[in-house]
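Researcher: Let's continue the batch. This sequence belongs to Carboxylic ester hydrolase, and it's 506 residues. Same format as the previous ones, please.
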Amino acid sequence: MSGVIVETTYGPVRGFTAHGVRQWRGIPYAKPPVGSRRFQPPEPPDPWGEVKSAFSFGPASLQAEDQTLANLVGASKLPESEDCLYLNIWAPADGGQHPVMVWIHGGAYTGGSGSINWYDGTAFAHHGVVLVTINYRLGALGFLYLGELFGPAFARSANLGLQDQVAALRWVKENIAAFGGDPNRITIFGESAGAGSVATLLTVPSARGLFHQAVMQSGSGALGVRTPDEALAFTHRFLSALGVAPGDAGTLLSLPGERFVAAAAALAEPGLPFGPVVDGQFLPQHPIAALADGAAPGIPVILGVTRDEFNLFLAGDPAWWQADEPVLRQRLRAFDPALPERVLDHYLARRQPREPAAKLSALLTYRVFVDPMLTTADILASRGNRVWMYRFDWASPVLEGRLGACHAMEIPFVFHNLQQAGVERFTGDSPARQPIADQMHQAWVAFAKTGDPNHPGGPAWPAYDLSRRALLAFGPETHVEEDPYGPERVVWRPAAPASGGPQVNA
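Model: Same format as before. Here are the structure tokens for Carboxylic ester hydrolase:
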């Protein structure tokens, strides 16, 4: 391991070389959002004179532990702090001007970190891409809507986690050339809430020009987006749990950050209580409406889902898998009282999968993930954007096969990180995984380099359009399917669209 010093606009940073890749960890892209800067937009970091060591990851944003995922992959809790605005870089050893990919982690806007080992960028750097991962403020500290209750000083407090992402992208745009990246070829990509962030950034005025391509994995323009009234109602409930009166800015700023995480856990709101707010300033329109108005002209997009997304959230619930059909219907009614009976009948009449629980998991997968993806893809294609859609089909044998191709399963395949600790406990250890990882990773690399995921030696991937609605199904036998969700789309058409999603730290 040898030192690699690079001069940024704020000062020099020393990284290292490992496995033939240059790395820098824990570079600050903004001032610590602590003290008087809590609940304020990110500010550029203060310059430094001496060389700053970039050998260690910065802390993650404060968050609750996701016990389900920890049990599945054996992950230990990461160091955390309110001082969390750091990024990490993996770059090819040869320098040059390589395409850049910026990864926005998921986690329901309440969990996760850019330093999770699944996101290691070594493989991307080996294949000629500069990979950047970022941390951003999460939960209440990143997404609590305060302006209407705490006065003008908090007028820009909405969407701070997204504002952090824009600040990180601005830092990348200004500095990545010194690390061997091309500031005119930047792709943003993310999964779950990270994909929801990507969809939102496509429409944020302050993010325009900071990236050129986008990938949305298991998330889209409808994920967790709230109106000001919805956000304000939640803020009232949250402040009550926190024990802070509206307008009491002194207490709001003096409480330990951990209290905000504890209050959210005690409140235990379903769905995605934290997330983007259409505040009329940073986010002027709902992302779906903004995309329909042409907010992302000319930006190529990949988007997709895993085949069995919702299995992740049900796999650890024995009552779900042991329930009979009437009980499952009752539980789905609790999830959505307006769910049409014909939709339930459609899924229960399917031959595969056989268990009623798996069939109704497919219903939830469509409702929460597939339908918003199709809406986003249709809008982008109708506006003339080049769009490619995928579905990830690798079925994990873990938990007696109940995970299947669940939410987050594709991540180590995209990053070519099947060897990372904990991955086998999630994906299984079959050698059949590797060819799928090769295909997905090379497609993402090709997209970063050319704006098209097709490449020599890879499976042909037709662009998505409103006539064929084709997708590429990545699996043991990767293949193209045309309009595979057509029957479901017809069944769901009269139903109200989904507007949120489950919590997951992935």
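Researcher: Any comment?
Model: The domain at 3-455+472-492 is CATH 3.40.50.1820 (Rossmann fold).
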